[in-house]
Amino acid sequence: MNESCTIEPLPLFKGERRTYSGILQPFAGHAHDHYVFGIVREGERELVLNGELLRIKKGDVLVFNPGDAHGCTHASESPFAYDSFTVAAEILDGKRFDFPGNADNQPRDQLEEVFYLLDRCREEDALEAFAAFEQTLVAKPDTKPPNLKHEEAAMRLYAHMLGHLAKRTRVETFAESEDLSAYALIRAYRCMFSLTPVQHQLALRVDAACGLLANGANASSAAAELGFSDQAHLTREFKKRIGCTPAAYAAMCKAGDGRG
User: Fold this and answer.
1) What's the rounded Cα separation, in Å, for the pair 222 and 206?
2) Count of C-beta atoms within a 10 Å radius of residue 259
3) Could you tell me the sign of the dihedral formed by the alpha carbons of 144, 149, 151, 154, in that order?
4) pLDDT per residue over 193-211, tens digit each?
5) Going by fewer Cβ within 10 Å, which terminus of the chain is more open, N or C?
6) 194 in Cβ contact with 207 (< 8 Å)
7) For the segment 142-151, what is each residue's pLDDT rounded down to a tens digit?
């Protein structure tokens, strides 16, 4: 297998997507001024991280903070393959994470979702998925107070989405109007509401659909009025959150009115 390294820019992360395969060479000790998040795809390596010797293998999640000193040497017959991306330090306000123990599948599954979306050129969706992944990581103690500017921007985003349910809000554009990075806004939003903006807007749309259906609208018209791509899209999202289809919900509402 030939050694290969591909690098592509990720503007919203202010970083790069980096993919390595067929790697046999050692990497000398070094440090970055950005974060690195990745998954080992093949092979095993001995990693020295801030003076500590670790063994990394296929399936392991890797996290390097800005300034973490690290280098590695090959420790298996299989060449090393590694998927990763970098994130500018300013995006995460310099927050620091412990290196993952890799006993829990949740961070790996969520990081795989980020890669899946990046591979399909859906960077804004990947940024939202990254917010969920980041919160599964163990953060080192942080004494920084909440950022009031970010929290106020998150509240304005919520109000904007509430008033424009039928149209997906482009978080990147809204963040620019608030003089923030898209990720800073998503992160603040998730901290306040425990949902990303896209997740929350879908939930708000489903709640609004309940109101329309209870007042006699059919699923097709409710889907069109609230910006779902089609009735099937509304049905999927509705069932995820309410536990039944829109048609069943409407029927139950109607039956309840009849009993009244």
Assistant:
1) 10
2) 5
3) negative
4) 877 888 888 888 888 888 8
5) C
6) no
7) 545 668 899 9
